[in-house]
Design goal:
Blueprint: E1 12-17, E2 26-32, H1 44-67, H2 80-110, H3 121-144, H4 155-177, H5 184-213, H6 221-257, H7 271-275, H8 279-284, H9 304-317, H10 323-341, H11 359-370, E3 378-382, H12 391-400, E4 405-407, H13 409-419, H14 427-436, E5 451-456, E6 459-470, H15 477-494, E7 499-502, H16 506-511, H17 517-536, H18 541-564, H19 571-596, H20 603-629, H21 638-665, H22 674-697
Length: about 700
C-alpha cells in the first residue's frame, strides 16, 4: 500500500504458482506466517508490558480460532517455549508419585519371604525411602544454591533410584549370604565387606562420569546443570545407604537374632506351640523350621527369586540346546544395534523437549509442514562503525550475504541511490541522504529500527546496524540451518567486518552441535577409568576385558535401538546414554568378577554360582526400575516419552546381557577353570601320599591318621 518492496518467500507456505508464467507468479498459498516485533528499551516495565501484550495476543488468537472454525490459527510468543518446556514438570508430578509407589511396592514384595523371621519387607521399603530422602536432600541443596529448575531434571529421581536400589538389594543379598550362627554384628560386617567395595567403585564411576558431564568441556548448559545435580545425588545416595540404611540393616539383624517377627515385631513362638495352632496362624508365624533340613545350611535359599534361579533358570540357560538360540539372538541384537548406529540423527528439533499438546508443538508442526523450504530468519548484526560508503566494504557485505535472500536497508539504500542517480561517496553525503531523504520515504520508514545513529558534535555516525538473511533449504531444514551456522560463525572471527548472527532457534541448534560426540567421549573416558580402577584393585584382567566388552555392547545396543525407535540425540537422550554406561557397569561388574575369581571345576558351575549370588539383586533392581518407568507413558510430553524409551532400553539391554548373553558366552570363552581343577587334584594327591607314608611308618596307629 505504501510502495514497500520486501522479500516474503519465507512467509508463504503451500504455494501454487500460476501455470506457464515466466516470472513465477504466485496463484495461491495455503499458509502465511506473520511476525510481529515488540519494541523494548531494556527497562523492566517495558518487558512486563511486552509480556502482558504477548499473553493477551495468544488469548485473542485462541478466541479467534473458536470464532472462525474455517481458519487454523497458531501463535508463538517469546515466552511460549519457556512456558511449554516447564509444563512437562507440572504434568509429571502425579505420575512421579505413582512411580514411587510402584517402586516401593515392588521392592517390598521382592524382599519378602514366607519365612516370617528372615523376610525383610521393611528393609526393601526403607531402602527405597533412603534413596528418596537423599534425592530430596540433593534437591534442597540445589535450590539453596540458587539453582534454576528445568524439566530435564525430572530424570534425576529415576537415575538416582536405579543406582541406589542396586546398593540396597546387594546389601540384602550380602546379608543372606552370611552364616546365621554368627553374631549379628559380624554378619553386618561380612555383608559390608562383601558388597560395599564394589558399590564404592561403581558409585565413584557414576561420580566421575557425571562429573565429566558437569565440566566446562560440556557444551550443553542443561546437561551441565543436570550432571552437577546428579553428582550431588550420587554422593548423598552413597552416604545415606552407608549410614542410614546400614543402621536399618543392623536393627533388622537384631530382630532376627532375637527371633522377632519381621512384620509384627513380636516374638515368634516355638515349633511345639505352632503345631497346636490353626493353619492361618502357622502361616503367619512360620519361621521356616518345617522346611529346613539338616542338609540345608542356608535357609535363605527359600527366597522365591533365589529358588527360581537355583532350581529352574540356571539349569535352563546353561543347557547345551539353549545356547545356539542365545547366540542367534545376540547376532540379531548386534545387527539391529549396528544398523541403528549408522542412522544417528542430531536432535535439533525443539518438539522433543515440549509437552505434546502444547501450542508451541502445534505451531512447530505446521511450520515444518508449510515453511520448511526456507531457513529461519537470521539476524545479521554489525556491531561496530563501518565505512558503508566505501566500495570495498560494500563488496565485503555482498560476499557475506551471497546465497541468501536478504531483507536489508543497505541493499535498498544502494538501489535508491542508483535509481535516483545520486552520488554518496563520502561519509557526510551518505549519512545526510540516508537520514533526510531515504528514511523519510513511507516505503523505507520501517528501516529506522535497523540503524543506530550517534551524534558527536555536529557529526552523525552509524555505530551499529542490522539486516536479515533467509536461505533456501530442502526438507531437512534443521540440518541445513546448523550447517549455515557453522559457515557463518567462523567468518565473523576472520572477516574485517565484525558481526554476529542470531535466531531464537539457534539456542537449540547450539545445544546439539556436539550431541553425538559428547556421550561417546564420556563413555570412552568411563571405560578407560574402569580399566585404571580395576588395574589398581588387582582384579583379574580377563574380568576387565569382559566388563569392557559387555558395557560397550550395552551402550551401542541402546544407542542403535533408540535410533531405530525414532529417538533423536537431544538433551535427554545424551544424559540417558551417560547413565546407561554406569548402569551397565553397576550390574555386570559383580557378576563378571564373581565368575572370573570362582574356583569351581567348570565354567558352567562358576556361572551358576555367580547368578545365584548376584542374580537376585540384579533382578530385584532392574524389575523395580522398569516398573517405575511405566507411569511416564501417561505423561503427555515428548520429553518424558524420550526418557521412558531410553531408560527402558537401558534396563532391558542390561537384563538381557546379565541373564541371557553373559551366562552363555562365558561358558564358551576364557577364563578357563582347568588350572583350578589341577590345583585341587595336586593337593588331593599330595595329601594321599602323606597319608600313605604315615601308614607305612606307623602300622599300629592307622586309626590315628
Amino acid at each position: 500500500q505504501d510502495g514497500r518492496s520486501s522479500f516474503i518467500g519465507h512467509q508463504l507456505g503451500g504455494v501454487m504458482e500460476v501455470p506457464n508464467s515466466k516470472d513465477q507468479r504466485v496463484k495461491s498459498a495455503r499458509a502465511i506466517q506473520i511476525t510481529y516485533y515488540l519494541q523494548t528499551y531494556g527497562s523492566v516495565t517495558q518487558d512486563l508490558i511486552g509480556e502482558k501484550w504477548e499473553s493477551e495476543f495468544c488469548k485473542l488468537m485462541h478466541k479467534m480460532q473458536l470464532d472462525h472454525q474455517d481458519l487454523q490459527l497458531y501463535s508463538l510468543a517469546s515466552f511460549s517455549l519457556w512456558k511449554d518446556f516447564h509444563q512437562t514438570s507440572l504434568l509429571a508430578r502425579g505420575k512421579i508419585l505413582v512411580s514411587l509407589m510402584l517402586i516401593l511396592l515392588t521392592a517390598t514384595l521382592s524382599s519378602s519371604m514366607k519365612d516370617c523371621l528372615r523376610s525383610k519387607p521393611f528393609l526393601g521399603l526403607l531402602g527405597v525411602l533412603t534413596i528418596c530422602i537423599s534425592s530430596v536432600t540433593a534437591a534442597g541443596i540445589f535450590f539453596i544454591t540458587d539453582g534454576k529448575y528445568n524439566s530435564t531434571l525430572l530424570g534425576i529421581p529415576f537415575f538416582a533410584m536405579g543406582h541406589g536400589t542396586k546398593g540396597v538389594f546387594e546389601l540384602l543379598s550380602g546379608w543372606r549370604r552370611t552364616r546365621e550362627n554368627l553374631p549379628f554384628k559380624d554378619r553386618v560386617a561380612d555383608a559390608y565387606s562383601d558388597v560395599m567395595v564394589s558399590y564404592t567403585m561403581t558409585s565413584s564411576l557414576y561420580f566421575i562420569a557425571f562429573g565429566m558431564g558437569a565440566s566446562p568441556f560440556t557444551n550443553i548448559e542443561a546437561v551441565k546443570v543436570f550432571c552437577q545435580n546428579m553428582c550431588v545425588s550420587i554422593l548423598l545416595n552413597y552416604f545415606y545407604i552407608f549410614s542410614f540404611f546400614g543402621s536399618c540393616l543392623v536393627f533388622a539383624g537384631q530382630l532376627e537374632q532375637n527371633r522377632y517377627h519381621s512384620i509384627f515385631c513380636c516374638k515368634i513362638p516355638s515349633a511345639e506351640y505352632l503345631d497346636r495352632k490353626p493353619v492361618w496362624f502357622q502361616t503367619m508365624m512360620n519361621d521356616g523350621h518345617q522346611h529346613t533340613s539338616h542338609h540345608e545350611t542356608n535357609p535363605y535359599q527359600h527366597h522365591f527369586i533365589q529358588h527360581f534361579l537355583r532350581e529352574h533358570y540356571n539349569e535352563w540357560i546353561t543347557n547345551i540346546y539353549v545356547k545356539p538360540f542365545v547366540v542367534i539372538l545376540y547376532l540379531i541384537y548386534a545387527s539391529f544395534s549396528f544398523m541403528g548406529c549408522l542412522q544417528i540423527n542430531d536432535g535439533a528439533n525443539i518438539i522433543n523437549l515440549l509437552a505434546s499438546e502444547s501450542p508451541s508443538v502445534s505451531y512447530a508442526l505446521i511450520q515444518q509442514k508449510y515453511f520448511s523450504n526456507y531457513s529461519p530468519v537470521i539476524g545479521f548484526y554489525i556491531y561496530e562503525p563501518l565505512e558503508y560508503w566505501n566500495g570495498t566494504v560494500q563488496e565485503d557485505l555482498k560476499t557475506l550475504s551471497q546465497g541468501f535472500n536478504t531483507v536489508s536497508w543497505i541493499e535498498q539504500y544502494y538501489q535508491y541511490l542508483r535509481v535516483g542517480n545520486i552520488s554518496a561517496t563520502n561519509k557526510s553525503d551518505f549519512i545526510s541522504i540516508l537520514q533526510s531523504s531515504f528514511l523519510k520515504k513511507p516505503e523505507f520508514q520501517h528501516f529506522k529500527n535497523d540503524i543506530i545513529f550517534s551524534k558527536a558534535g555536529d557529526e552523525n555516525n552509524i555505530i551499529a546496524s542490522r539486516l536479515y538473511l533467509v536461505a533456501r533449504t530442502s526438507e531437512n531444514t534443521q540440518r541445513e540451518a546448523v550447517e549455515l551456522l557453522e559457515k557463518l560463525r567462523p567468518l565473523s572471527l576472520i572477516q574485517s567486518i565484525k558481526f554476529i548472527v542470531f535466531n531464537p532457534t539457534f539456542v537449540f541448534m547450539d545445544h546439539y552441535g556436539l550431541s553425538v560426540t559428547m556421550p561417546v567421549l564420556i563413555s570412552g573416558f568411563g571405560i578407560l577409568l574402569v580399566l585404571i580402577l580395576t588395574f589398581f584393585l588387582v582384579i583379574h584382567p580377563l574380568g576387565n576385558f569382559w566388563l569392557i566388552l559387555s558395557v560397550t555392547s550395552i551402550e551401542l545396543g541402546v544407542l542403535g535401538l533408540m535410533t531405530l525407535w525414532n529417538v533423536d540425540m537431544d538433551c535427554i537422550s545424551i544424559l540417558c546414554l551417560i547413565y546407561t554406561l554406569n548402569f551397565a557397569i553397576d550390574h555386570c561388574a559383580p557378576l563378571l568378577y564373581t565368575f572370573v575369581l570362582a574356583t569351581e571345576h567348570t565354567r558352567t558351575q562358576c556361572i551358576k554360582n555367580s547368578l545365584q549370588e548376584h542374580g537376585t539383586a540384579i533382578l530385584q533392581n532392574v524389575s523395580s526400575f522398569l516398573i517405575g518407568l511405566v507411569p511416564l507413558l501417561f505423561v503427555p510430553s515428548n520429553l518424558t516419552f524420550t526418557l521412558f524409551k531410553c531408560l527402558l532400553l537401558a534396563g532391558s539391554c542390561t537384563l538381557l546381557h546379565c541373564f541371557v548373553i553373559l551366562p552363555v558366552f562365558l561358558t564358551f570363552f576364557p577364563p578357563s577353570k582347568k588350572h583350578h581343577k589341577k590345583k585341587k587334584r595336586a593337593k588331593r594327591k599330595e595329601r594321599e601320599e602323606i597319608e600313605c607314608i604315615e601308614i607305612q611308618e606307623n602300622p599300629d596307629h592307622v586309626t590315628a591318621v
